Amino acid sequence: MTAVKRGNGRAELDVDHELPSADENDKPESVNSAGQAAAPIIESDVEKLRSERDALLDRLARQQADFENSRKRLQREQREYRDYAIENVIKALVPILDSFDHALKAPPGADFRSGVELINRQMHDALAKLGVEPISAEGQPFDPNFHQAVQTVETTEVPDNYVVDELQKGYKLKDRLIRPAIVRVAKHPTR
Prior knowledge:
Blueprint: E1 2-7, E2 10-15, E3 29-31, E4 37-40, H1 43-84, H2 87-105, H3 112-129, E5 132-134, E6 147-154, E7 163-168, E8 171-173, E9 176-179, E10 181-187
Parallel strand pairs: 6-10
Antiparallel strand pairs: 1-2, 3-4, 5-8, 7-10, 8-9
Helix pairs in contact: 2-3
């Protein structure tokens, strides 16, 4: 039996999926466009349609299961990626920690400054390998996209709106700003 339901401005077709059972004397007949009885529906056609329906329902169930498995696998891969994404960063920083450990074990009076300079160089090299770059600030035109001004300094020694000095270094990862450079900006005195 087929019924048309209307709701929310849409017509929906409600179809019963069970076909009526036909006994030998009561074979269903198809109806042509004029509404007249046509040749009776053959039982083999009904069985063929049932088997096609069953095959399609089985295929649908398998595709839904495949989709669900793919979704779960993607979620697991994303979780593993998040959990282990910092592995390369850790591998780059561990040798620097080793250098700090060696510096702290050095006897008093050793050339401490050269050791700290070496560690500083190692740190910058490790960050550069990871794609982290320091932002140029001092002597550059002030750029609010990369610099954060905390003070203006009246001076004529540096062009107007140029960075006088850098209070804290800024960094970017490839094209993304990690931290702006904290700067003081030149301002020419008004007359």
